[in-house]
Amino acid sequence: MTTSASNVAEILATLRIRQPLVHNITNYVVMNFTANALLALGASPIMAHAVEEVEELVDISGALVINIGTLSKPWIEAMFKAGVHARSRHVPVVLDPVGAGASRLRTDTARELLRRVRPTIVRGNASEILALGGGVGGAHGVDTQHTVAQARQAAVTLARTYGMTVAVTGPEDYVTDGRREARVRNGHARMARVTGTGCAATAVTGAFVAVAPDCFQAAVAALVVFGLAGEWAAQHAQYAGSYGIALLDGLDAITPDNVRKDAKFDVAEVVEK
Amino acid sequence: MTTSASNVAEILATLRIRQPLVHNITNYVVMNFTANALLALGASPIMAHAVEEVEELVDISGALVINIGTLSKPWIEAMFKAGVHARSRHVPVVLDPVGAGASRLRTDTARELLRRVRPTIVRGNASEILALGGGVGGAHGVDTQHTVAQARQAAVTLARTYGMTVAVTGPEDYVTDGRREARVRNGHARMARVTGTGCAATAVTGAFVAVAPDCFQAAVAALVVFGLAGEWAAQHAQYAGSYGIALLDGLDAITPDNVRKDAKFDVAEVVEK
Amino acid sequence: MTTSASNVAEILATLRIRQPLVHNITNYVVMNFTANALLALGASPIMAHAVEEVEELVDISGALVINIGTLSKPWIEAMFKAGVHARSRHVPVVLDPVGAGASRLRTDTARELLRRVRPTIVRGNASEILALGGGVGGAHGVDTQHTVAQARQAAVTLARTYGMTVAVTGPEDYVTDGRREARVRNGHARMARVTGTGCAATAVTGAFVAVAPDCFQAAVAALVVFGLAGEWAAQHAQYAGSYGIALLDGLDAITPDNVRKDAKFDVAEVVEK
């Protein structure tokens, strides 16, 4: 199956029509921002973490997003319960391993989620993907210390090991399902100045995978559209605070036509080096 | 007692002078947004959920707002403790049954809060009010699947059963205390593109009921002013992200004179059909 | 050691180069806003509260910020664990005693944190500092009921008792380490219309103390830069919602040259009255 700018544009158009419900078990810092990102994009967010209700909410959702940014024991329990249930019901699961590599709790929880939930897509920065894939990894909190290129092999290995799509975001994003790989060049450096842009990219990926059957295509489409929103925002806001708001505006403003015109990505077969 | 645009304008003027303290036990997603809505309006928010302190904070507050948007066991315990205490001290309680109908936990908690706390005002969307009043209700997360008109009878019945005011918000808002009913036509469709606008309407209702002895009037006044803020925002912001910020600006910008000039609502006796 | 506008400008320049990691155990309401404040300023925020990971994250952080704005038992445990560990590793600790005086839980927790953690810097409003220092204190939620001048003696006494720097913010800020005192006149009245500006000032203080060895200077520098951001914002936004965003923009926009030109503060020896 090819992945072209037209495919991405069509997936966005479908998303806007179907307005998928995306269930998020995410961190306190970004809940408001990611809910607004989903609404601005055209999806419908629900945030819920009680073990008593996560299964019911998964049942009515088009995707489940699990984000480990502010972990604690009761939330970890809910993530596993919701994740396992989602997979049993064929609801796609997107994992954001925020800060994997920065603490044992985060690294261990993320790895255990890979093993027991087997997410459909993982989206992280280079340090996080390295921490999941090997032994090295991030050591400066939640911001990456590695380049996307450094994480490429770990991404391919993870994708093959778990049969999933891995998205590594950075100045240029890298997406692979172990067989295909894409490099997405949409986006803007200012995105790193706003908290939760990575988390919002993950949430948006949840909305795309809820409407696109090909997970690799869904991840590429999400990062193209999110990157275009970031470019749109850079034309409207110079400083960090208003840039974050403009990024939400961009998710609202970007149309399938914008995607056809401005999407910047390449897809290829994974070639072993 | 009549409810005119002048009444609403006077209540707003009183609120701005008295700056009531509003105690919120609310969900993680909207805490920042609703605190900012209360501050922008001219009230003083406090967010607190520890069972050890909720009673003390109720004692110094003009109203208590309970919002079940991200429930869990310890929070439910705090909601009951604060709610029962508030009623015993004649502090008005406003309930937002976010997602009632979408999970048993939410539906059961909201109904139990009605029974044991007997809120002064309940503010929800049509699906949530239907879920509280009967057996049907929301099934698509936290966004409504029903029209306000469909929820009218449930609202009247709930208001009479519990001796409270019920506000159903939507394209046109409906408010009833079982005897009187109001239809509020202020507002803008863009409000549904921002997370927490319903929750903010509930918090703002808390500020109004803290200064207006007539609960029905307080709910009408809150929805008129909130709707006017939404209209103001629509003149200043086109896209979802900046619209949310402009809505806060609108709560700050709207004056009693704006209310006298632009309030759009009708009040009537409830007529059985 | 003197503290001049040039010192403050140099500390800001250092902060922008070193981009210190600031670990925050803070309240739900302001997590997003304070993380964005730190990013906009040029620091790197991490929010984490699990007892299983706080020590590891302290080890990689330049400062720890503890904010008691939405307390509960598990969070209190994490605050003590992280705080005691930080002091043992010589990582500076900044405490924000949000709402001290408004409930016993808050007052007792804040006082116990002073005793057992011995923070490097405490930043609060006048009511909170009075509640920590004596018996009187805030009684209207989280907003101050006292003037900064009323809290001066309590601040000096607290600073000497615990060997720390105390910052009292208000229309004019007051900073003392028990020997020196500073009055900072940067800032704008509109800052009080946005939730979490005090909390953001505390977080920003964490970033400054991570790079400035003199804690008194760090606190003065933080409040000067934060106040200048507030002034910058007042030139760009009239109403509460957009003012909060413009405040973040201001933290991004303010340069060391702006500091040299517009810093408004005096430093003196503490003279007993």
Explain what the structure shows.
3 copies of one chain form a homotrimer. Helices cover 51% and strands 15% of the residues of chain A. By secondary structure, chain A is an alpha/beta fold. Chain A has a 9-stranded mixed β-sheet, sandwiched between helices. In chain A, helix 1 packs across helix 9, helix 1 runs antiparallel to helix 11 and helix 8 (197-209) packs across helix 9 (215-236). The mean pLDDT of chain A is 95. The A-B interface holds A 21, 23, 28, 31-32, 35-36, 39-40, 44-50, 52-53, 56-57, 60-61, 74, 244-253 and B 27-30, 32-33, 69-73, 99, 102-106, 139-143, 193-196, 238-242, 244-245.
List keywords for this structure.
homotrimer; alpha/beta; nine-stranded mixed sheet; 11 helices
Mean pLDDT of chain A: 95
> How large is the radius of gyration of chain A?
17 Å
Q: Could you give the order of the helices and strands of chain A?
A: HEHEHEHEHEHHEEEHHHHE
Low-confidence stretches of chain A: none
User: Helix amount of chain A, in percent?
Assistant: 40-55%
Let me know the number of strands of chain A: 9
